[in-house]
């Protein structure tokens, strides 16, 4: 009878271990899937940028430095390869800043501001930026759930034995935290 009890306890512990391991794998894959969603939106934005730049070029010929910076940031983001999510988002944030500069150009060029192509591209990029923000939230939520599971008892024992490591949350850059100055 004692042998059956011991055997039953061992089976329960093994089943729990397998379940905990599978849950960690599921959470890890959710983190990867959430990052893939960010990557899809970044690619969508990268695909829109050349059209935006070409539209603006016709109106703002002497703003080449701004346009060149946007293209450089876009190309850098496109060619990052196996960069970490943090490195990728840092370049993405720089690109977002450069895009804001292009949108500010429209205030100086009334014809550009009224251009249908420009307005459509601006809307598409604005929607894409919102999707990137949402995807970042989803990524951080997935990372938080995964990291909590890694840190809590008793799952942390399985995580340590299987070599699971924590993921890093995406943080808002300092320049994005500044309150914009509004002057009338």
Automatic annotation (TrEMBL):
Main localization (coarse): membrane
Membrane topology value: Single-pass membrane protein
InterPro entries linked to this entry: LemA-like_dom_sf, MamQ_LemA
Subcellular location: Membrane
Keyword annotations from UniProtKB, A to Z: Membrane, Transmembrane, Transmembrane helix
Pfam families: LemA
Similarity-based family: Belongs to the LemA family.
Protein's name according to its UniProt entry: LemA family protein
Taxonomic placement: Bacteria, Bacillati, Bacillota, Bacilli, Lactobacillales
């Amino acid at each position: 009878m004692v042998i059956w009890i011991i055997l039953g306890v061992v089976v329960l512990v093994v089943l729990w271990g397998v379940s905990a391991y599978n849950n960690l794998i599921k959470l890890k894959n959710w983190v990867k899937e959430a990052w893939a969603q960010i990557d899809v939106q970044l690619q969508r934005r990268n695909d829109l940028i050349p059209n935006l730049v070409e539209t603006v070029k016709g109106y703002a010929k002497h703003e080449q430095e701004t346009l060149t910076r946007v293209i450089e940031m876009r190309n850098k983001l496109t060619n990052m390869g196996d960069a970490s999510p943090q490195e990728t988002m840092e370049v993405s944030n720089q690109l977002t800043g450069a895009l804001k500069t292009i949108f500010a150009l429209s205030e100086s060029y009334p014809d550009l501001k009224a251009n249908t192509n420009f307005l459509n591209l601006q809307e598409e990029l604005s929607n894409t930026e919102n999707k990137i923000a949402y995807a970042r939230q989803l990524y951080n939520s997935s990372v938080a759930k995964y990291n909590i599971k890694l840190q809590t008892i008793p799952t942390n024992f399985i995580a340590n034995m299987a070599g699971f490591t924590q993921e890093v949350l995406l943080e808002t850059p300092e320049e994005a935290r500044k309150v914009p100055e509004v002057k009338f």
